[in-house]
Amino acid sequence: MKASINLFVYCGIFFMIMAVIYGFVTHFNEMVGFPALLLVGVMSIMIGVYLWLTDRRVGRQPQDTETAEISDADADYGFFSPWSWWPIVCAAAGAVSFYGIAMGWWIFPFGAVLGIIALVGISYEHDRGGFAH
């Protein structure tokens, strides 16, 4: 976690310095780039501070140890079905929906309906068939 803290804090400092330089180069007349870079820097530092506070509370993590094994991070990553086709249907629903937003609103409802079908399918895939619990 130490590397992540350093990464976010240093990136935040970099973006804030670049925001000031950008402001001076544009004479603070262009009011999109300067605030955007400034906010990216502030948000990056906010994430770094959050990670630092979390690191102080949690203590030493396996990713901070050079000699750590993969099995040391024994957290439960969740249950995933490698045979499931529903994530592909969810991705297709998202693609159709975003395509509808970009190209024509009449396409969006088709993606929304496909998304509802995909979410119901992925939610209930373990309740029926050969893989029911």
UniProtKB/TrEMBL annotation:
Record membrane topology: Multi-pass membrane protein
Domain of life according to the entry: Bacteria
Uppermost EC category: translocase
Gene Ontology molecular function, alphabetical: cytochrome-c oxidase activity
The protein's Enzyme Commission number: 7.1.1.9
Main location: membrane
GO BP: electron transport chain
Bilayer-crossing regions: 7-25, 31-53, 83-101, 107-124
InterPro entries in UniProt: Cyt_c_oxidase_su4_actinobac (IPR021050)
Keyword Zinc-finger annotated: no
Keywords, sorted A to Z: Cell membrane, Membrane, Translocase, Transmembrane, Transmembrane helix
Compartments in which it is found: Cell membrane
GO cellular component: plasma membrane
Pfam families per UniProt: Cyt_c_ox_IV (PF12270)
Catalysed reactions, semicolon-separated: 4 Fe(II)-[cytochrome c] + O2 + 8 H(+)(in) = 4 Fe(III)-[cytochrome c] + 2 H2O + 4 H(+)(out)
Function: Part of cytochrome c oxidase, its function is unknown.
Subunit structure: Associates with subunits I, II and III to form cytochrome c oxidase.
Family: Belongs to the cytochrome c oxidase bacterial subunit CtaF family.
Protein name: Cytochrome c oxidase polypeptide 4
